[in-house]
Automatic annotation (TrEMBL):
Source organism of the structure: Hortaea werneckii (Black yeast)
Gene Ontology CC: mitochondrion
One annotated GO molecular function: protein-containing complex binding
The name this protein goes by in its record: NAD-dependent epimerase/dehydratase domain-containing protein
Length: 327
């Protein structure tokens, strides 16, 4: 719940219909921000990204736009007047790797391509793209590669946000790679971070680096989170010395809602910028939780004051609020 003094912000979430993206939209709506989601299909397929079979009530407050992030002309107007833009899209597995896992690709040929040192991204350098020039996948068959989705799509969005004079930009990156993933997965994430931070210094950029994300609405993520948490404990016991080996498997898994709350809190706090690691994500989410609790207490106190049953401005009220917030 937003306080009466809160300034209403405009947030644009690219990938807002995804697993994490829709939760970012929800967290921003809870603060009464003006939220627009940009994605290829518009509104989410709710059963696939949440526990809802139909659109939840909060989703009615979001403008769900169908647009192509690689074609800025399809969403350029949505960035006008925005206070913040979020890039919450990317791929974990490329088509070659998926083909091997599903039996559609030869294991040797598929893995060789998947773990190749480099693949093509966009047919156009996102920093040199001219107005109206179409960006497309340059790899054979229009394959969506890490270079295209994790790096080039983020860079072109950041460029458009910078040109629209958007003050803040958040990029959902990752804590690390993983032994089972091609090295290009995390390399393209870090390349995007470097390009955005050095090319657009005027814009406050946040690079969110969570580990494995889980939620009960995606049942398969729960046992995977348990395994990952075991890796996190083992890595912690060695003082983090297993990070080089385990990658994201050695980072603490986080609930998707928590990460979403942290992103919105970080965008609301001008002091947050640069890489946001797992510990800071948790800290920001905790700060957001306390803010929400305080907001609810203010409403409760207003009710009590109206009934003359309790003076929240007096000593008793201060002690009561402090006790609850410090628990």
């Amino acid at each position: 719940m937003a306080t009466a003094s809160a300034v209403k912000k405009k947030l644009v979430v690219c990938g807002g219909n995804g697993f994490l993206g829709n939760r970012i939209c929800k967290a921003a709506v809870a603060r009464e921000w003006d939220v627009t989601s940009i994605s290829r299909s518009g509104e989410p397929n709710w059963p696939s990204v949440s526990a809802h079979q139909t659109a939840p009530a909060w989703s009615k407050s979001v403008t769900w736009r169908a647009a192509n992030i690689l074609h800025p002309e399809t969403y350029k107007s949505d960035l006008e007047g925005a206070d913040a833009v979020v890039h919450s899209m990317g791929i974990l597995l490329e088509a070659d790797y998926k083909g091997v896992l599903t039996g559609k690709e030869s294991p040797i040929a598929g893995l060789k391509r998947a773990f190749s040192q480099t693949k093509k991204g966009s047919n156009v350098n996102p920093l040199e793209r001219q107005p109206g020039q179409e960006m497309e996948a340059a790899e054979r068959g229009g394959e969506l590669t890490y270079e295209l989705m994790n790096r080039d799509s983020a860079v072109v969005l950041a460029r458009e946000a910078n040109e629209a004079k958007v003050p803040s930009f958040a990029y959902v990156s990752a804590a690390a790679g993983a032994p089972v993933l091609p090295g290009r997965y995390i390399r393209t994430k870090r390349e995007a971070e470097d390009i955005i931070s050095t090319t657009f210094p005027r814009m406050r950029s946040l690079f969110i680096r969570p580990g494995f994300l889980f939620d009960s609405s995606r049942g398969f993520t729960i046992p995977m989170a348990a395994v990952t948490y075991g890796g996190f404990l083992a890595n912690s016991l060695t003082g983090g010395n297993l990070t080089w080996l385990m990658g994201a498997g050695g980072a603490k898994p986080l609930k998707a809602d928590l990460v979403a709350e942290a992103i919105v809190e970080g965008l609301a706090d001008d002091g947050v910028k640069g890489p946001v690691e797992v510990s800071e994500i948790e800290s920001l989410a905790n700060k957001a939780w306390r803010r929400e609790q305080f907001s609810q207490l203010e409403v409760f106190c207003d009710f009590l004051k109206a009934s003359d049953a309790f003076d929240c401005r007096g000593t008793n009220g201060e002690v009561f609020l402090s006790f609850v917030l410090l628990k």
